[in-house]
Write a structure and sequence with these properties.
455 residues; alpha/beta; 6-stranded mixed sheet; 45% helix; 17% strand; binds the ligand Nc1nc2c(c(=O)[nH]1)N(C=O)[C@@H](CNc1ccc(C(=O)N[C@@H](CCC(=O)O)C(=O)O)cc1)CN2; binds guanosine-5'-triphosphate; binds magnesium ion; metal-binding
């Protein structure tokens, strides 16, 4: 960790680019106060809103505004921070920033204020990421969930689990010193109970983080089906614009086409894909390969089939969607049906999870909207349960912890304590990557303080 004194003073326009009512130039670092006092031509008291004139090097007024000084460590970054709150004009804010830099500040890199808050221990890594997620949140639900992550709800659960794993590691490391005795005489039963509890917590946390990842990124829905079923037509109908090329030639779509749509303030990503079938030319086969790859990341498969003969080409689709968590079957082209489409009889694919539409006439699209909204809001219930946002990075770390923990359990069953200890260490480290806080010396401290090794 870089000691605060070795860090330079950074400055940036903290408000959004473009014109606004008010714009803020923010400084952080040991020279912030001195630089701001030169610009404001007066002394600044901590946590006082001073009404001042911001002056250039000749003493001419750049703007009038509010100067706000936060003395370290009581600031967002934990360093000395000053805000120069001016009118929100891009040209004058740039001039104010240039003036701060002429007096010794440096332009901040993206995220550098939050990085300093992390380095100063005011936020952990997951919380710092939550700041970015809060700012980027596309709807109120995602914003609330990011806010909870920023308040440490995710981090606290990770750290509680890390503490459980630490206790288990301490126990196993201690037992290694008595390796000639069977584990059962060394508290093996208690160890297994602890293990089972930690394993359950990890599963719960993994499920919560996966929901959190979906909350952050929105529902990822992939449109699949046989060629010519009307997948691209459906994407266009849902997006409300002619995004994808539609023709009556089977095999029109080859590339993946992503489109973000909002349904009543809930964001979801739709992906159009190449129709799945056997054969096709090299380009079409590459398109199908991409479609299958995209399905591995899908939360929902929207399976588009021709309502006139829903079974056509379904075999190639069925195996591609096997691992997708949810499916919705869209019977398309109902405008071409002669009989009542609500009673498809033997062609009963999808059961409850089916809707009947015409991408061309728009019939049934309201019902499809409602189904998609309900699926996206399946997660909305989480909001009430205190859901938090998470990222793929966190889910990956938890999955690694899951693997290592399973491995450790298997090694323990074989009384291979060294291997179990190593797997536990890896699991513990994977968790530590999430918050960026867990350190090797924590473990040493715990071992020495709770056991009398060498006695
Ligand atoms: N004008 C302004 N508004 C802002 C920010 C900012 O930097 N400036 N923030 C930037 O992201 C967010 C608020 N984050 C902040 C976090 C901590 C402190 C702070 O001074 N903390 C001290 C004092 C706490 C207290 O008085 O209770 C501390 O924690 O010790 C300030 C802003 C949103 N609004
Ligand atoms: N009558 C009718 N025609 C439709 C409907 N939806 C799509 N079509 C037609 O069906 C043909 C294929 O539509 P696309 O949207 O390109 O189908 P696709 O599934 O994307 O096809 P590929 O990209 O080749 O896999 C086009 O001629 C569309 O105009 C519908 O609801 N009713
Ligand atoms: Mg298409």
């Amino acid at each position: 960790m870089t000691p605060p004194a070795a860090r330079d003073t950074i400055a940036a326009i903290a408000t959004a680019p473009g014109a606004g009512g008010v714009g803020i130039v923010r400084l952080s670092g040991s020279r912030s106060r001195e630089i701001a006092q030169t610009i404001a031509a007066r002394e600044l008291q901590p946590r006082h809103a001073h009404y001042v004139r911001f002056r250039d090097d000749a003493g001419d007024t750049i703007d009038d505004g509010i100067a706000l000084y936060f003395a370290a460590p009581a600031s967002y970054t934990g360093e000395d921070v000053v805000e120069l709150q001016a009118h929100g004009g891009p040209a004058l804010l740039e001039e104010l920033l240039a003036r701060a830099c002429a007096l010794g500040a440096r332009r901040a890199r993206p995220g550098e204020f939050s990085e300093r808050a992390f380095l100063e221990g005011r936020l952990d890594l997951a919380q710092a990421e939550a700041v970015a997620d809060l700012i980027a949140a596309g709807d109120a639900r995602a914003a609330r969930a990011a806010r909870r992550a920023l308040d440490g709800e995710f981090s606290r659960r990770v750290e509680a689990l890390a503490a459980d794993l630490l206790a288990i590691r301490v126990h196993v490391e201690a037992a290694i010193d008595f390796a000639d005795e069977p584990l059962d005489t060394l508290g093996g039963a208690a160890l297994r109970t602890r293990f089972a509890a930690a394993s359950t917590s990890l599963d719960d946390l993994l499920a919560a983080a996966e929901r959190g990842r979906r909350l952050r990124d929105g529902l990822h829905a992939v449109i699949v089906g046989p060629p010519n079923a009307g997948k691209s037509s459906l994407l266009n109908a849902l997006a409300g614009s002619e995004r994808a090329i539609v023709t009556d030639i089977a095999g029109t779509t080859r590339d993946l086409l992503h489109e973000t749509v909002r349904l009543d303030g809930v964001e979801l990503t739709l992906v159009d894909t190449a129709g799945l079938r056997d054969g096709g030319d090299a380009i079409e086969r590459e398109g199908m390969r991409r479609a299958r790859g995209e399905l591995t990341r899908a939360d929902l498969a929207i399976v588009v089939i021709d309502a006139r003969d829903p079974h056509i080409g379904l075999a190639s689709v069925a195996d591609a969607i096997i691992d997708v968590p949810a499916r919705l079957f869209v019977y398309n082209k109902i405008d071409l049906l002669e009989s009542d489409y609500d009673s498809p009889g033997p062609a009963d694919i999808g059961g409850e999870n089916r809707v009947f539409v015409s991408a061309q006439t728009g019939a049934g699209l309201d019902a499809l909207h409602a189904r998609l909204r309900a699926l996206a809001q399946g997660d909305a219930a989480d909001a009430a349960e205190g859901a938090f946002t998470a990222r793929s990075r966190h889910v990956d770390a938890l999955l690694r912890a899951r693997e290592e923990l399973d491995d450790a359990r298997a090694q323990l069953d074989h009384e291979m304590l060294d291997l179990a200890a190593e797997a536990l260490r890896q699991a513990h480290e994977a968790l530590g990557e999430i918050t960026g806080r867990v350190r090797a010396d924590d473990l040493l401290g715990h071992i020495f303080s709770s056991f009398c090794i060498g006695k």
